[in-house]
Write a structure and sequence with these properties.
five-stranded mixed β-sheet; about 30% strand; globular
């Protein structure tokens, strides 16, 4: 019985590792929503505060080609994400974020940083180091510099399981 449970756990882990490797952690979840911006090209800075399942502001307006520095602050009591992307990208990313919870990386109000460095195979990890995204514990603050290349259906969202569904996303409007 114990051998079969171990085998099932091993198969599940290897499948999730393969799915994670096929995902874009380290591969750029923001490819169709713009590109990493250069600090020297920042037109303005927007502060985004994350609370438990909402953002302040709830929407932003940008110009096509504009580079924005986002100062993102987690003022909630849970781990939250700020991720710029299309709705389809967020839907795909939510599956990866679920794996982060299942593997013990996201633990309510804290991150297991040792688990984030775990080798998932093929040089992939759970570091959550895409240039269009930050994952923050309560009280943390980081910056994202992003260039909005073209008009499109873009939003910023928290893809921690259940947060997007609870309304933690905001619209990116174009002038």
């Amino acid at each position: 019985m114990n051998v079969s449970k171990l085998l099932v756990a091993g198969v599940a882990f290897s499948m999730s590792a393969g799915a994670f490797a096929a995902g874009a952690h380290g591969g750029g979840h923001g490819a169709s929503s713009g590109e990493p911006g250069k600090a020297s090209e920042v037109a303005r800075t927007i502060t985004v505060e994350m609370y438990d399942n909402y953002y302040e502001p709830e929407e932003i307006t940008v110009k096509p080609g504009e580079t924005v520095r986002f100062v993102v602050e987690n003022k909630g009591s849970l781990v939250h994400e700020f991720n710029i992307g299309t709705p389809a990208m967020h839907e795909s990313h939510q599956k990866e974020m679920m794996m982060m919870v299942e593997h013990g990386v996201i633990q309510g109000g804290k991150l297991n940083h040792d688990m984030m460095n775990m080798d998932m195979g093929n040089g992939h990890s759970m570091k959550h180091d895409d240039p269009n995204s930050v994952l923050l514990e309560p009280g943390q603050s980081k910056e994202v510099v992003w260039k909005f290349s073209d008009k499109g259906n873009i939003e910023f969202a928290c893809n921690v399981p259940g947060h997007y569904q609870a309304g933690m996303y905001g619209e990116v409007n174009f002038e």
